């Protein structure tokens, strides 16, 4: 660049020199050009440094699941979804990560997105086990909307006749505000097992919550009798509730 700007007037005619306007004041022009060039160099260096620190601060792929777990634990579901999605984009065949992304969507009430993610998994047994485990976690935390979504997907995709899941789905639906659906689902269990104690117990609870104490007593009486041998704790709870119901007469 310096050689180009320091052209000697004796070598070229002013009319033919494309830079003739600079020749009379080339030291100043050269200083300006060098200053501008210096700015560009500094800008390039600064950009490289910034980019380096951005890349350095960006989490490594293998860290994403742990960071997502931490985000969920702190209640930042949107961040967890973002991190899990990044990981799934890198490893699209990782079943566990796909299930966890789906459950993160479900936790956030984005059930269409959750359904889409589950559709990418297929009906592999590992996916079913993970799905059921996540559904149970939501149920235990009283997040009944998310639990009912996952239980429903499990029944549809993996084991439609699973009595225990039907019972839990029925109760989750009822507690999430879909009371009629919850009762119908729980009653459907009695078609498979007419005296299933857990189903009878939950139907007793549902009836009591709707102030139908006659129906509630009937369910708890059947439950207490049916549960004596297999579920003694449930039988004891049913009898305790029956005593309280008797006091309401």
Which keywords apply here?
249 residues; mainly alpha; Serine Threonine Protein Phosphatase 5, Tetratricopeptide repeat; elongated
Topology:
Blueprint: H1 2-5, H2 20-23, H3 26-57, H4 64-73, H5 77-90, H6 95-107, H7 111-119, H8 125-140, H9 144-157, H10 163-175, H11 179-192, H12 197-209, H13 213-227, H14 232-247
Helix pairs in contact: 4-5, 5-6, 6-7, 6-8, 8-9, 9-10, 10-11, 11-12, 12-13, 13-14
Structure description:
This protein is mainly α and 249 residues long. It has three domains: 1-58, no CATH class; 61-189, Alpha Horseshoe (Serine Threonine Protein Phosphatase 5, Tetratricopeptide repeat), CATH 1.25.40; 193-249, no CATH class. Helix content is 75%, strand content 0%. The protein has helices spanning 2-5, 20-23, 26-57, 64-73, 77-90, 95-107, 111-119, 125-140, 144-157, 163-175, 179-192, 197-209, 213-227, 232-247. Helix 6 runs parallel beside helix 8 and helix 9 packs antiparallel against helix 10. The longest helix has 32 residues, at 26-57. The protein is elongated, with a radius of gyration of 35 Å.
Summarize this structure briefly:
The protein has 249 residues and is mainly alpha-helical.
Beta-strand portion reads under 5%
Overall domain count = 3
SSE run: HHHHHHHHHHHHHH
Main sheet record: none
What is the architecture of the largest domain at the second tier of CATH? Alpha Horseshoe
Helix proportion of residues, in percent?
over 70%
